[in-house]
Amino acid sequence: MLLLAAALLAASLPSAAAAGRHVDPAPRSGREYIMLSVWARANEFAWRWLERDKTLELSNRLGRLVFNVDPRLDCRKSRINGVTVWLSFPLLCRNGKVYISQLDLSETLGPILSPPGNPGGIRLRTICLDPGHGGKDPGFRVGSKEEKKYTLLLAQEVREQLKRAGFRVFLTRSLDAFVSLDRRTELARKCGADLFVSLHFNATEEAPREVTGVEIFCCTPAGATSTNARGEGDTRWVTGNRNDEKNMLFAYQMQKSYLNHLQLEDRGVKHARFQVLRDAAMPAILIEGGFMSHPIEGRRISDPAYRRQMAGAVVDGILAYKRIVRG
Fold first, then answer.
1. pTM beyond 0.90, yes or no
2. pLDDT at residue 63, as a whole number
3. Alpha-carbon span 45 to 80, nearest angstrom
4. Disulfide-capable partner of 208 in 53, 267, 293, 301 (CB 3.0 to 4.6 Å)?
5. Architecture of domain 126-325
6. Confidence class of residue 6 from pLDDT cuts 50, 70 and 90?
């Protein structure tokens, strides 16, 4: 995917950043921004406005990036080859020029356009599945339905499909039992997991008949705040940041797989410092696979046939990641 851009990206970023330093539009923010047009030219992307001063498209024969630059909306929201990806920092517009943070070039766009690979001989064989909640922690409740039940059922179905695909699979819980958050990542480390996948479902009390869709989280890069924190909160380095590039690539491939399999609303790839992502020693994602509170989506989540489809999306997301990193 985007192989030409990938080769150019690695070579061009240092010079592009240098070109943008003296025009940093937010010098007091502690962030380095560069002109998006500089990066686009270096990577042979054509540039055009889909809607002047609102929506910007960068494209070449292999890919299409779409950015929102309208300050009345959220300038962190982008689309990469049709998949929504939330930037760590909003794009900035100054005097008709658009700027993007260096951190997003390296930690958000970079892993997707220029995928990291595994060193030769290192294979991806062992998956740790983490069914969210359990025991005294039911997760979301919608009527008589509890999130903990459906995360476990989904994990069990994913396990069977992964085993048929040749993987070793461990679950952080196989019963309706409480497992602490730190214990979950410890179990993943002890079983030698190559990937960690935490399974969850969403719910909302506000407009439950309207809010739907899938969102995939990976660990927030050091120096940034989490997507839903709106600029507030922790920015420190954590263990999960050891795998920032692979976390983002894995989350992107999983989001794309869910959209291809299930045609859900695309809520995007996001960053968070959930404890299971902070503490994970291997590439890790957390899946919010739909809204139990939505009358249609909630009914599907409890349906065994739909659960097999969801499991297939998880497996295909893992297989896509494995192919790309040559694992």
1. yes
2. 87
3. 13
4. 293
5. 3-Layer(aba) Sandwich (3.40)
6. very low
